[in-house]
Amino acid sequence: MRIAIAGGTGFIGEPLAQRLAGDNDVAILTRNPSRVRAGRGIAWDPPEQDVWADVVAAADVVINLAGENIGQRWTKERKERMVSSRLDATSALVEAMKSAPPRRRTFISASAVGYYGSRGDETLDESSSQGDGFLADLVVKWEVAARQAESIARLVIIRFGVVLDPHGGALAKMLPPFRFGLGGPIGNGRQWMSWIVRDDVLRMIEWAISHEDVRGIYNATAPEPVRNRDFTRALGHALHRPAIIPVPRFGLKLIFGEMAEGTVLPSQRATPARALSENFTFEHPRLDEALSRIL
């Protein structure tokens, strides 16, 4: 199978490429092909069309994980890059697929539970409405760009929650203070967190590739979201450290500005209703077990 991965050197893309490269021809679209460890590196610079476009046009599966990191303070310039990097990459991939004769192909495009905004205690599934805020608006534009492929590919849009792995992402940033016993809940800790272990994310993408009936939008979140205070308690327990020092909301806002409001402070109780109804099995459905395993 010929697979093209945009963003294949990132936190999710690199281990995904390693899993897929054994039995498939995997092309990694990247601005720095020398960083590619699994598969073959192909230089790309969307929206410009080049050799990479021919690779995408010939692929059986195209996976879109490209986009500017959202985990830093949101300046005006960074917000513009967050939008343009996602829309330019997605639109360029769609145009490359459209340039080829019609054929069976799959397009898997990343998204985020930021789509739902901050919703308190409301349980959210894939049919829930769009929320408010910059991140929700960005995700809507991102998904609209991906939907342009619906006429030429089996489209799967995966809305990622907080992806947990000690070697990157949010958990890697949390570990140092927690290991020194300085971790604790954010504010009152009542906000919901929709989390998922990275290995289950990779398995869900593989499941989407191999099951022809999988199409549309899926939440990539564990079946049991938790409140922030319960997350910090479980993380402290897994590290055998206390986790009782609260992080004041105003402090996060002062340091991170709008980024804190968009990514750290919202309450999102998202559930993977569609994946569960279509018999996807999570290897790490419970937070305490998941943290013990990955740490």
Write up this protein.
With 295 residues, the protein is of the alpha/beta class. The protein has a domain of 199 residues: Rossmann fold (3-Layer(aba) Sandwich). 40% of the residues lie in helices and 18% in strands. It is built from 11 helices and 13 strands. The strands form 4 sheets. A 7-stranded parallel β-sheet has the order 3-2-1-4-5-7-11, with helices on both faces. It has a two-stranded parallel sheet with strand order 6-13. A two-stranded parallel ribbon has the order 8-10. α2 crosses α3. The chain is globular and about 60 Å long. It starts with a strand and ends with a helix.
Key attributes of the depicted protein:
about 300 residues; alpha/beta; Rossmann fold; seven-stranded parallel beta sheet; two-stranded parallel ribbon
Concise overview:
The protein is of the alpha/beta class. The chain has 11 helices and 13 strands.
Profile the largest sheet: 7 strands, parallel
Query: Would you tell me which CATH topology of the domain at 2-162 and 195-221 and 270-280 applies?
Result: Rossmann fold
Number of strands: 13
Give the DSSP E fraction (strand runs of 2 or more residues): 15-25%
> What proportion of the residues is helical, as a percent range?
25-40%
What is the overall pLDDT average?
Answer: 95
**What would you report as the Rg, rounded to the nearest angstrom?**
19 Å
Low-confidence stretches: none
Order of helices and strands: EHEEHEHEEHEEHEEHEEHHHEHH
The rough form would be described as globular
Q: Main sheet: which strands, in order across?
A: 3-2-1-4-5-7-11
SSE class: alpha/beta
Count of helical stretches: 11
